[in-house]
Amino acid sequence: MTIEVLVPNLPESVADAVLVAWHKQPGDSVQKDDNLVDLETDKIVLEVPAPENGILKSIDQPNGATVSSGQLLAIIDVNGSEEPISAIDGSPNIGRQAPTLSPSVRRLIKENNLNPSSIIGTGRDGRLTKVDVLNFLETQNNNSKQTTSAQVESANVIENKTPVLTKPGENRPQQRVPMTRLRARVAQRLLQAQQNAAMLTTFNEVNLNSVIALRNQYKSHFENQHEIKLGFMSFFVKASIEALKRFPIINASVDEEDIIYHGYYDVGIAVSTERGLLVPILRDADQLDFANIEKAIAGFGKKVRDGNISVDDLTGGTFTITNGGTFGSMMSTPILNPPQSAILGMHAIKDRPIVENNEIVIRPMMYLALSYDHRIIDGREAVQFLSSIKEYLEDPARLLLSI
What is the number of other CB atoms lying within 10 angstroms of the CB of residue 64? Predict the structure, then answer.
């Protein structure tokens, strides 16, 4: 008996997907839930598991094909005799079965022709993480005193193996690499944001001395009680929510000639990944305390690293926070994430001289930026909103008292 493997139902916001890579070939033995193929949408990479044990009889879509929901991908002969499962590199998997690998880990394994059974996994249940593979490659590099081009590509997560192009007689190499699906979608949305919104940015600066003092005082107790570190992002999320309550237009969006006011606070947290920018959403963030905010953000980070982020995690959002400070940015103008009408940009914390009580003192300062859609948000509201965030962060006790 044969069964069909179909493209899973894609979310309404995702029209189609690109077939990235087959992990099994016709004639290969497969077990139920083995990942057969990776499908890349403009948001995430989806894994398509084998529905039953059997033999992969045929493949109907090649690598690089564009597919849609319900389209035939392959056929499995469930009556076929099962053979030993092969490792990722094609060699017999002797000793132990290859662990379940995320798309990013599997890509590194494949690009560098590695045997996953030779790498010690530090993830949950011994699962291999991207860091494990990169550390293994670094160890090999140190032992051999060489850096191969494949390792350089893996460290930079270059997904396309397009050869370097050179002009005859010249030593000026160039490389043409197609955009990934996600990168192309991000480019489209950013261009759309600039073309379809009257985008302006207002700036302010905040003295984080009180936040840092409060964090230093309680971070050990916080981590012991909640089993999560107390970061800065939870303070910014809380301050943003209180400011959004004061100025609901910042939490609104434009739908043609209508303004939609959202009675909830779904805050997007921009995350930079090797595939491009992702914005997972903190649902009903106003109902989360500091610990749950930090746990949710850490959970998103783990999902991104393991390649398990879902479309639902990335869909929606009424307001976004992005932190360029993690890369050392002092000041920037963040671009709107449509259909949202505002985005808050955090930046690097730097000790700078300021005047307090007619005296020059050194304080940990951060520049804040709020980009907003001037079609529905007036400059007065944008400035006052950013000033409110500044007030809450400079007196964080108000966040606990909601005043």
Answer: 10
DSSP E strands in 23-122: the ranges are: 29-30, 35-40, 45-49, 54-59, 66-67, 72-77
Backbone φ, ψ for residue 124 (5° rounding): -60, 135
Distances (CA, A) of 251 to 265, 269, 365, 369: 8, 15, 26, 16
Annotated catalytic residues are: 374, 378
277 in the same domain as 132: no
Total count of domains within the chain = 2
Characterize 85-120 residue by residue with b for buried, 16 or more Cβ atoms within 10 angstroms of its Cβ, and e for exposed: eebbbeeebeeeebbbbbbbbbbbbebbebebbebe
With beta carbons less than 8 A apart as the criterion, state whether 187 and 370 touch: no
- Stated pTM of the model: 0.65
Residue whose tokens read 């077939």 = 19
Query: Among 180, 184, 233, 187, which residue's Cα sits nearest to residue 335?
Result: 187
Identify whether residues 379 and 302 lie together within a single domain. Answer: yes
Over the stretch 254-305, which tens digit does the pLDDT of each residue have?
A: 988 899 999 999 999 988 777 667 889 999 999 999 999 999 999 998 888 7
318 domain residue, yes or no: yes
Q: Following DSSP, what letter does each residue of 278-301 receive, concatenated?
A: E--EETTGGG--HHHHHHHHHHHH
Domain-located, residue 163: no
Please answer whether residues 105 and 157 qualify as being in contact, where contact means their C-beta atoms are separated by less than 8 angstroms: no
96 and 206 in a single domain? The answer is no
Q: Do 380 and 288 share a structural domain? A: yes
Length in residues, the chain: 403
Same domain, 140 and 283: no
CA gyration radius for the chain?
A: 25
Instruction: Identify whether 168 is part of a domain.
Output: no
Q: Give the tens place of pLDDT for each residue, 129-183.
A: 777 788 777 777 655 544 334 333 333 433 444 556 666 666 778 888 877 777 7
Whether 176 is covered by a domain: the verdict is no
My answer on whether 122 and 192 are in the same domain is no
Could you tell me the residue range of the domain that residue 85 belongs to? 2-155
Q: Report DSSP state, residue 310.
A: -
Tell me the DSSP string of 79-103: TSPP-PPBPTTSSB--SSPPPP--H
